[in-house]
């Protein structure tokens, strides 16, 4: 599945200072089940985060203070970890934790 | 980045998620303050108008005043500069706005963030003044860290920055300094002041305007503005800000307080405003002695001691005794007791994280 992932607010420093990643996520979802944000976060953790993963994740979700937008919509409106993803979706992660 | 302007009608979002204000457009975010689901356009309106209400209700500015915006290049001050210049036009505040930046002399950090402020100067048409540690004190932060190591550098940074902003404001001849402190910052500071037992700061840190008795009053138009909304606003508006942590900021204590606030916010977003309210409701008992304000005999800056904190720190640097003045000391000849106070740690003023404007 082709996705555009964007890291901002300092999170790009955790993935080689690259802000925008066009990725092909080849996760085998269970028969008929859609890829969710929960799956994507685990994939990002394994494949994109190169250092200090604790700045990005806490438990199985993002660290509090990291904003997530799916197709430019706050993921708090779409079910957070349960948000389902489709082909060519965009997901943005922004840390609010860096200097004012 | 360009993606944002393309509204894709997608399954789990969109359908059934109409903006609760206009009932027309697709909701784009959930407001932490009210839990409303609103669209981008309505968000801009409520975000800006709430700040306008705070400014008017608290009489933060008077027509004709010259106002400096403490600009670090980070998200808060960038959004503040943008919103204040918008509101100034829209509501005819009749303010002369300036950007005021401090160059601490930190290679790879402040030089980059200053580039952001210089772009903001052009984008928002606000004149910029930069004051540097080097020209004010004769030392850059890089040189200070080379001398003292990484342990107490935030003491220097915090004390010097506070004074540098006042000096810059005086050079600009402004009436007031507006800073980008947001509701999350203030809640965090309330907690820290409780944890440190610092009653004087606890009662001061929730005030929307401070230093009215000093040279330049400071105000915080974002006192009630959530960090989440500031970052969302900057993202949706594509505002240009800088977001790298200060390389000399080892302050774990503040970091824990911040994390705790964010954890609370996730469970109950109103926690942030509730903590501010608690801070406001604390009253200082009459038995708590507040330090008297005088002026520094050396440089004339406000000080409750013979010499101000910056002069004591500078004296230490220039005499090759950088530990002088670290810890809440009295006077300048008591090196030994300073060191003792420092080692028990409790009264250490090393507390304000680098990159964060001091209250
Ligand atoms: Zn709307
Ligand atoms: Zn002085
Ligand atoms: Zn610093």
Automatic annotation (TrEMBL), chain A:
Pfam families (UniProt xref): Urm1
Pathway terms, separated by semicolons: tRNA modification; 5-methoxycarbonylmethyl-2-thiouridine-tRNA biosynthesis
GO biological process: protein urmylation; tRNA thio-modification; tRNA wobble uridine modification
Covalent link Glycyl lysine isopeptide (Gly-Lys) (interchain with K-? in acceptor proteins), residues: 100
Record-level GO cellular component terms: cytosol
Localisation per UniProt entry: Cytoplasm
PTM section of the record: C-terminal thiocarboxylation occurs in 2 steps, it is first acyl-adenylated (-COAMP) via the hesA/moeB/thiF part of the MOCS3/UBA4 homolog, then thiocarboxylated (-COSH) via the rhodanese domain of the MOCS3/UBA4 homolog.
Entry keywords, A to Z: Cytoplasm, Isopeptide bond, tRNA processing, Ubl conjugation pathway
1-thioglycine carried by residues: 100
UniProt similarity note: Belongs to the URM1 family.
Alphabetized HAMAP family for the sequence: Urm1
Function of the molecule: Acts as a sulfur carrier required for 2-thiolation of mcm(5)S(2)U at tRNA wobble positions of cytosolic tRNA(Lys), tRNA(Glu) and tRNA(Gln). Serves as sulfur donor in tRNA 2-thiolation reaction by being thiocarboxylated (-COSH) at its C-terminus by MOCS3. The sulfur is then transferred to tRNA to form 2-thiolation of mcm(5)S(2)U. Also acts as a ubiquitin-like protein (UBL) that is covalently conjugated via an isopeptide bond to lysine residues of target proteins.
Official protein name in the record: Ubiquitin-related modifier 1 homolog
Naturally occurring in which organism (per UniProt): Nyssa sinensis
UniProtKB/TrEMBL annotation, chain B:
Name of one Pfam family that matches: ATP_bind_3
GO molecular function annotations of the record: ATP binding; nucleotidyltransferase activity; tRNA binding
Main location: cytoplasm
One GO process term, biological-process aspect: protein urmylation
UniProt pathway: tRNA modification; 5-methoxycarbonylmethyl-2-thiouridine-tRNA biosynthesis
Listed EC numbers: 2.7.7.-
Record keywords, A-Z: ATP-binding, Cytoplasm, Nucleotide-binding, RNA-binding, Transferase, tRNA processing, tRNA-binding
tRNA(Ile)-lysidine/2-thiocytidine synthase N-terminal domain ranges (all copies): 67-250
Residue ranges annotated for the Cytoplasmic tRNA 2-thiolation protein 1 C-terminal domain, each copy included: 294-324
Key word ATP-binding present: yes
GO cellular component entries: cytosolic tRNA wobble base thiouridylase complex; mitochondrion
Entry keyword annotation includes Cytoplasm: yes
Binding positions (ATP): 70-72, 76, 102, 180, 185
Subcellular location: Cytoplasm
Entries under NCBIfam families matching the protein: TIGR00269 family protein
Function: Plays a central role in 2-thiolation of mcm(5)S(2)U at tRNA wobble positions of tRNA(Lys), tRNA(Glu) and tRNA(Gln). Directly binds tRNAs and probably acts by catalyzing adenylation of tRNAs, an intermediate required for 2-thiolation. It is unclear whether it acts as a sulfurtransferase that transfers sulfur from thiocarboxylated URM1 onto the uridine of tRNAs at wobble position.
Family: Belongs to the TtcA family. CTU1/NCS6/ATPBD3 subfamily.
Name this protein carries in UniProt: Cytoplasmic tRNA 2-thiolation protein 1
Protein encoded by which gene: NCS6
